[in-house]
Design goal:
The chain is α+β, with helices and mostly antiparallel strands and 141 residues long. Helix content is 26%, strand content 22%. The strands form three sheets. It has a three-stranded antiparallel β-sheet with strand order 6-5-7, sandwiched between helices. Strands 1-2 form a two-stranded antiparallel sheet. The protein has a two-stranded antiparallel sheet with strand order 3-4. A hairpin with a 2-residue loop joins strand 3 and strand 4. 18% of the residues are buried.
């Protein structure tokens, strides 16, 4: 069961007995209000297109900025992966993580075909976006 907050309760109208706020409702639904989330599975490559990096994020613009400006040490910094060549949008993080895991298990040929289906020229999809400078990556509006 999902509880929206540890001590959030609303009164039961019949008996006046408190009950948990979001009892038996999915995590994204509280009462009749539905909250929309954005999650992205994305693939990056370097300028030689010999490396593919797959990951999931909730802010594609910020994450792209971090990769381009090599903010974090790791795979993308080591292999100069900064070109966004593929992405998919999801509202549920579980589906996004499941898809990321599925793609990571694929062969290189299958990943290449997936990228080519959306982006046949393998151009950087984030080129026309307004990507902030390195110091603005985490504080952008």
């Amino acid at each position: 069961m999902f509880y929206a907050a540890w001590n959030s309760v609303i009164p039961n109208r019949r008996r006046g007995i408190p009950r948990p706020l979001a009892l038996r409702l999915p995590p994204r639904e509280i009462g009749r209000v539905r909250v929309a989330y954005n999650f992205y599975v994305y693939m990056l490559t370097n300028r030689w297109k010999n490396v593919l990096y797959t990951d999931v994020t909730n802010d594609l613009l910020r994450r792209g900025c971090e990769h381009r400006n090599k903010v974090h040490d790791g795979f993308t910094k080591m292999y100069n992966c900064g070109r966004l060549v593929y992405f998919e949008w999801y509202q549920d993080i579980r589906q996004a993580i499941e898809r990321e895991t599925q793609i990571k298990k694929w062969s290189r040929a299958k990943k290449d075909a997936l990228v080519a289906s959306m982006n046949p020229e393998w151009r950087d999809l984030s080129e026309e976006w307004n990507v902030p400078e390195a110091e603005d990556c985490s504080t952008r509006i």
